[in-house]
User: Fold these one by one.
Assistant:
Number 1:
Amino acid sequence: MNKIVRILGVPMDLGQARRGVDMGPSALRYSGLGARVRALGYGVEDHGNVVTPVRDTLPAGGGRDFLSAVVATGEAVYAVARAAIAEGVLPIFLGGDHSIAVGTVGGVTDAGPCGVLWIDAHGDMNTFETSPSGNLHGMPLAALLGRGAPELVDVGRPGAKLRADQVVVIGARALDREEREFVKAAGVRVYTMREIDERGVADVAREALARLAPFPRLHVSLDMDAVDPSEAPGVGTPVPGGLTFREAHLLMEIIADDGRTASIDVVEVNPILDRRNATGRMGVALVASLLGQSIL
């Protein structure tokens, strides 16, 4: 595993109607992310925040009105993600909403394919034609798989950045009808909360890692709404019935044991909706588990 961690904030809140995730990077830093990572023996470089558009300077409509701004931010994120992998460091991207992943995943796959663990209550495989809300943070995985608005699909380099066999979704419990149809047609492996309930998170985690065995690197894209709102209330789109505190940590611990994690997203932390920064603190704790913190 890389021993230098590079922290990069992406304070973008253009992907949804609710405000506040632009403060997510600050909440995670305030919760001691850098110190926690250093305590695990890593060197830490904090490169500050990628410059993102201020929402109040943009058209008020949202959705398509923000598309060009999200694409521009994605291009900037792609460049810093690509650079981090080329320099041999492990980047941790602090969102911001999940639309930043068109840049993060795109950039970390620039030098070659890697497996992606998409840990999320939602599928994020909508397009403007299928999305009930039109929110861009529900579209990044579709774009990475080559589906949806060409501007999003082509961020960084033309075309799809992932094949269906490169990505596994864990923790889903809120998929729209058209997303379900796309999942079946494309062959994306989605582990729903029902499957986790029935089989246990350890079995699911190990099977997901085995599925991604052909890839030498893994990117972990952690949306904090994968965790149950009772544990992580500060997210923009909470869905009851998510991962418990211990399930979430066990998932991270098993991924850490695998040893292939080369890049990480932590997204959708919304301090405005949080309780005493509980979600920010949990995000930091989950990153620590993902980087190898253990009980013994």
Number 2:
Amino acid sequence: MPKLLPLGDAAWTVEFGEAVDPALHARVMGFAQALERAALPGVIEWVPTFRSCTVHFDPLSPLADGLGERLLEIAAGAPAAAVLGRRWRIPVLFGGEAGPDLAELAARCGTSAEAIVARMTAAVFRVYMLGFMPGFPYMGGLPEELAMPRLATPRKQVPARSLAVTGTLCAIYPFASPGGWRLLGRTPLALFDVRRPAPALFAPGDEAMWQAIDATECARLEAEEAAGRLDRAAFLVAPEAPWPR
């Protein structure tokens, strides 16, 4: 059963479970879609996550007092809705200065850096939500054998576009930022660009696979991206194309 949790005096969080799981996320997205259809007076916006959805509302609205009960009713009756997004093949330069934690991760797993890259490029990663900073994708799908805790001492600055992992999650930092995730590589693609109609590269429901590239190719693509000549559509995978599951 969904749980209702207060978040100050102007928001409710409807919690559906505790795991990072596609089926659970489908329940969250089904609730979000049902909430949009309901068009409840006084509701300002809602923010779906892995396992919950926070609903912000006007506390002075006449319907604010009974909103929590109404949200639970909607959550109980909303069907699951798996969001089918775009599929991406994203180039990544692994290891070296681009991925300073790759060798340590390999050592902890008792294998080689090449084997880690092979596992990363064979996995399909699903975007569950954006958060932390504009365009930062929280992605599930990291192979369990690669799961590691955060760094004991976070870095003061993670380079922009760094591919990083922690626990069973994977992400790419859109901008330079402090961070404690383990850095395995870097993509030449910008994750967030306000010059575009849709600034964020990823959206919830998207899937991505990584394609290993060398330093020369990475530098070429970075130059093309900086000049505004890189077409994002070139990295999309057609819906009818083979895609590992």
